[in-house]
Amino acid sequence: MLDWDDLKTFLAIARHRTLSAAARSLKVSQTTMGRRLGHLQDRAGATLLERTPIGFRLTPTGAAILADVERMEESALALERTIAGDDCRLEGLVRVTSVEALAGHVLTPAFAALQADHPGIVIELITDNRSLSLARREADIAVRLGRFEAHETVVRKVGEMAFAPYASAGYLARHGPPDWAAGAPGQRVVRVQDDLLATPDGQWLAERTRQADPALLANSREVQLRGVMAGLGLGHLPCYLAEGQSGLVRLNAEPSIVREIWMGVHRDTRSAPRIVAVQQALIAGLEHSRALLRGAAAPA
């Protein structure tokens, strides 16, 4: 009989195409991934994945079994979610995923009260710009900027995040204020990387800085903030990060855009006490930071 761990390895490599990426997805070593793949193909008596210069690809035999293995995965995950949803203990691991800056500045402090009340709950906080799957239990709770699409996810709006343009005082002394209507000619810009330009905050800045030169591209809000503070260029930043930073000037009195913050949990696990407790802690933390997230000036 084929081993389920080996079949999970098959799925991970088929999806990610490299041993290293597949290993990260399953939180095992690359050596373990290679060993499991070899073991599976030995037991199956067939080559299911073949290595190419651009990564692994399915053989005809691998393609023929892929749908069956995916159905096995769906059944196993449904079983795990049912067990987790019926677990009445206020202890155990809860995986939370969100973007890095929000997780560090707003969500993490919210766990202090949770730990005081429920020390048996352990948080695994996964910061990633990718949308991790609740159905595949890559995370138990997701906090995202924008609505969820998965129909098996129970979602609620839990806050709003304002953005505004900022620059350092030193930068403005050298370049002057930007002329947004003309596309900010003569200016330099600190912005998101090209693959994130479609986000509302990325679009806002791109539309107003058509004539500006890029100075720094980064997928990290922290890196963007530090770049703007260092005087590299104009930036379009979350207000909760930028307000109160020494030497940083907000260029618009009102927020330029406001993005919604949504929380999602899989419907099968939404009633598990530990997951409910973590959601409540996150909501309390977001509410505590509500004014700053909405763009209020930081206290002097």
Fold and architecture overview:
The protein is of the alpha/beta class and 300 residues long. It has 2 domains: 83 residues, Orthogonal Bundle (Arc Repressor Mutant, subunit A); 213 residues, D-Maltodextrin-Binding Protein, domain 2 (3-Layer(aba) Sandwich), CATH 3.40.190.290. It contains 11 helices and 11 strands. The strands form 2 sheets. Strands 3, 4, 5, 6, 7, 8, 9, 10 and 11 form a 9-stranded mixed β-sheet that branches. The longest helix is centred in the first third of the chain and has 27 residues. The protein is globular, with a radius of gyration of 23 Å. The N and C termini lie far apart (67 Å).
How does the SSE layout of this entry go?
Layout: H1 4-16, H2 19-26, H3 30-44, E1 49-52, E2 55-58, H4 60-86, E3 92-98, H5 100-117, E4 121-127, E5 141-145, E6 153-168, H6 169-175, E7 188-191, H7 200-208, E8 213-217, H8 221-229, E9 234-238, H9 239-242, E10 248-250, E11 257-266, H10 273-288, H11 290-293
Parallel strand pairs: 3-4, 3-5, 7-8, 7-9
Antiparallel strand pairs: 1-2, 5-11, 6-9, 6-10, 6-11
